[in-house]
Amino acid sequence: MGSEIQTLHAFVELGDRLRDFCENSKAGKADRDPAFQNALAGARAANPWFTEPNLLLALGQWGAALTRENLERWLKGYDMSAARTAKTVGIVMAGNVPMVGFHDFLCVLISGHRVLAKLSSQDRHLMPFLSELLIGAMPDLAGRIRFVEGKMAGFDAVIATGSNNTGRYFEHYFGKGPHIIRRNRNSTAVLSGGESPGELTALGGDIFHYFGLGCRSVSKLYVPEGYDFAPFFKAIQGFAHLGDHHKYANNHDYNRAVLLMNTQRFLDNGFLILREEPSFSSPISVLHYSQYSSMEALSEELKAVKDEIQCVVSGMDIPGHVPFGRSQFPALDDYADGVDTLEFLLGL
Description:
Blueprint: H1 2-26, H2 34-46, H3 52-65, H4 68-75, E1 88-92, H5 102-110, E2 114-118, H6 126-137, E3 145-148, E4 157-161, H7 164-174, E5 179-182, E6 186-190, H8 197-208, E7 218-224, H9 230-235, H10 246-261, E8 267-268, E9 273-276, E10 286-292, H11 295-304, E11 309-314, H12 341-346
Parallel strand pairs: 1-2, 1-4, 2-3, 4-5, 6-7, 6-11, 7-10, 9-10
Antiparallel strand pairs: 8-9
Helix pairs in contact: 1-3, 1-6
């Protein structure tokens, strides 16, 4: 138990460092921590989708989560006092969103196990840097964190995150031992038609943060039949700057051209294309939508596709919904794919 308490203290200190850096960045202070700045510069160079605002969003989200109060509240629901043998847990991390594997990393260490992490080439700077900060707060962690390139070996259990295609590979390679394997999921929003401008603007964050690349990014809307999109387009105008990002703009131009060539109907405000389409997965710069006739019918549809959905954003009384503007700020006990990672690790 003593080791877990020390580990918790180290994550609390890390949260303090993250909050300090983000607050100084927001205040425009020139003397921001140079070590942080170097790590962010490396992350931006490795992945052009990792803009400084998105990096600060990820750091700020974890800074807000890693408080003593939040961590202790989260861990209250588990038996952290039981004796356990430390195992080596392999974590295969994705690279679509900055620090997307951090929650798995936290869960492995807080449960007393060792991390063996394989980083995505698209996000290989932040996790080693944050690990150094943790080790500075708790030197014993140096022997419990290892990053590997190439083939991962010598693990007792695995947590792997990837696409549906890589998921099949993961099942073949890791399926014989204890594992959590995550595949593609998307998030959706359900609108009533009575949302305020502020709620629709907040929804814009759920759609556009991280350029829509995360599994918690809203990629599809459910709207009532005959919904007027004009207020929605007006409310999200503050995100028009995304069109200045060359990769996002290229995606927008390409997707618009494809739709025009195929003579498909769509709406376009210059940086977001709205297309009526049943699938949840939408290309960058495209948002799918479906119309519903009744909440009863919609509830049945959402139940039928629940394994494709990461979260549902809404202001309506929908079980387990996330408020507008909060999809990218999950609580510590809001586990990806609904699988309790910490319970899995404590049971090894």
